[in-house]
Every structure is written in C-alpha cells, then in structure tokens.
Amino acid sequence: MHNTFQNPRIERQRGREIEKMGRKANCDNQYAMNRGPWSAEEDKILMNYVQVHGEGKWRELSKRAGLKRCGKSCRLRWLNYLKPDIKRGNISSDEEDLIIRLHKLLGNRWSLIAGRLPGRTDNEIKNYWNTYLRKKAEHKHDKIPSHNDNIPIKLRIESPGCSKNSFGNVLDPTKSPHPMRCTKVMMPVNDSVNTTNLITTSWDNHNPSSASMQLDDYNHCLTGVLQEFDISDLLMSYEDDFRFNGYACVEIPQHIFEDETCRLDDSLGEEAWYENWKNDPYFPQDQDMGFSSF
DNA sequence: AACGGGTGCAACCGCAAACGA
DNA sequence: TTCGTTTGCGGTTGCACCCGT
C-alpha cells in the first residue's frame, strides 16, 4: 500500500505500540474493545461527551466517557457520522459533477475534495467515487464541455509570441477542442476558498518540479510552469463559494488564435494587468461568469 | 425457500505529519 | 533536537443487503 521506506523512529513507535497493545498494532487494547458497527447507545454516549467536552483527545475521551472503543474509532465515528453538520446520502448532480472535476484535478485526495463540498466527508466521497462515480467519470472523460455548461472561467489568450496587439482577446475555449499549452496562470486569492492550493496541487500532480507556487506583491498566485494540459482541466462548475475567476495565458497555434469562431471579444486593445484585476469588467467578482454572459 | 455472487458502505488498518513536552 | 503522543489521511476489509437463479 504505502512505500516500504523504513523510518527508524516510526519503527520504534510501532514496536512500542505492539508491545503495549499485544499482538496487533492497531489501536488501544483490542481485546477489551468493541469493534464493528456502533450501537445507538454508544453513539449517544459519544455525542453527549463531545457536546460537553468538545472534540479532540480521542483516546482520553473513550476512557472518560466509558466507551469500549479505541480513540481512533471514536474520532472516525464522530467525524463521519455523528457530527451535526454532516449531510449524508442524496448527493446531487451538481455535487457529483464537482467531485468528478475535482478528482480530475486532485486525484484521490479525498479530504481536499470533501473540503470543497460542505457537509460531505472524505469517507463518503471516497465510497461514492469507488462505487459509482469512477465509471461515470470514465464515460465523461472524453466529453468536450458544451456551451450550456456553466463555466465560471474566462480565458485571456495570448497569441504566439505574446505580441502586444493580441492582449485582451477573450476566447471561448469550449468552441476550441484543440488542446492548449498553459504557460502561466494567475488567480486572485479568495479568502473563503483557497483556489491557490487547488491549482498548485493540480500542477504538482503532473509536474513535481513546480511544487511551489509563489504569490506576488498583489497576492495573486503566479507560476510559470510549462505544462501540457487540457483546457477543460480549468473549467469548473459554478458554486456560490467556489469561483474561478481566472486568467490563464496559454500558448495556442496561430491558426487557432486567428479562428474567428473561437473569438468572443476583441474590443480591448491593451493588456489588463493583474494588479487591476478587481476593476476588470471582464472578471467580475460578484456575479455568475457563465459564458452566456459574454 | 435457499443459495450464491455482486454491491455499497461503515469501520478498520497502517502510515506519516503535526504537536507538545 | 529528540521522543512520545495525537491526529489525519487514503487504502482496504468485512458484513449486511440485494437480486437473480
């Protein structure tokens, strides 16, 4: 499962745990502990204890609350099942779509994906993916985004060579099925949603050498990786708190750049520098940026 | 009704990072 | 800095349930 690297410290730790717990190094003393599904009574005890004393110190919690469950088990039960704000079941089509897109970006980073779906747990998303969405995503993989998709990112396209005249053109990537090459992505940092991490992670997956993404003086993330990617990787579903007001500079072949069918607006004659980001009418901060508004 | 294979999902496991003394 | 403990994560397991035969 994991790598076989033997960390001496970890080995010592495991040795201690094995010694302490008996034959198997799982958690606490397994022979005195309940295992398997939780009873309603156990749930009640755990819930009452957490409501009074708060989360954390799970091992201590299990002892003090009189639960014959190991600390890990208590934590898991609370986080995945008992916590009040948890939504369970009935995953909507919007959520499905978001999971698929996030998985495409992040891979099996379930906790990160869950972090973007309020009320959903990593375990639920992982199970949902493994039992249902994986197949669905495979079918969806080849789909070119349709014009009806609600895509909150606009792209500014630089022509080959980044000539001055080319700045400001806005293309509809959904009308261009050609793969593009990303040379630079600038994203405004949103306090409520850390889009920087998301984008960084996606680059990291493909290109470990681009592990760090710097922020500039204007608190925009900025990277100069030369990374092949499918333009649809950046197309995200619109969510109230999950918005990609993005500015991607991409290299595209000249003939695509000159293709009028892709071009939506070329009225801007000059580059809008990213320090003017928030004043740029092409990247409004507070409204839906679906392509229908072009 | 009984059986067996497939499926979904809660719970478990091992590992590593984070934390704190 | 070191070491013990706690927390968080992702992969895996095992069991209940479903459905076809």
Provide structural commentary:
With 294 residues, the chain is α+β, with helices and mostly antiparallel strands. The chain folds into three domains: 8-82, Orthogonal Bundle (Arc Repressor Mutant, subunit A); 93-140, Arc Repressor Mutant, subunit A; 155-293, no CATH class. Helices cover 35% and strands 10% of the residues. The chain has nine helices and eight strands. The chain has helices at 8-21, 40-53, 58-64, 71-82, 93-106, 110-115, 122-140, 195-206, 254-257; strands at 155-156, 170-171, 180-188, 214-215, 220-223, 227-229, 247-251, 263-265. The strands form two sheets. Strands 3, 4, 5, 6 and 7 form a five-stranded antiparallel sheet that branches. A three-stranded antiparallel sheet has the order 1-2-8, with no helix packed on it. A hairpin with a 4-residue loop joins strand 4 and strand 5 (220-223). Helix 3 (58-64) packs across helix 4. The longest helix has 19 residues, at 122-140. The chain is elongated, with a radius of gyration of 24 Å. Mean pLDDT is 53; it is low at 1-26 and 141-294. The chain binds a DNA duplex (21 and 21 nucleotides) through helix 1, helix 4 and helix 7. This is Myb-related protein 123. Keywords: Activator, DNA-binding, Nucleus, Repeat, Transcription, Transcription regulation. It is found in: Nucleus. One of its GO terms (cellular component) is nucleus. Residues 30-82, 83-133 form the Myb-like domain.
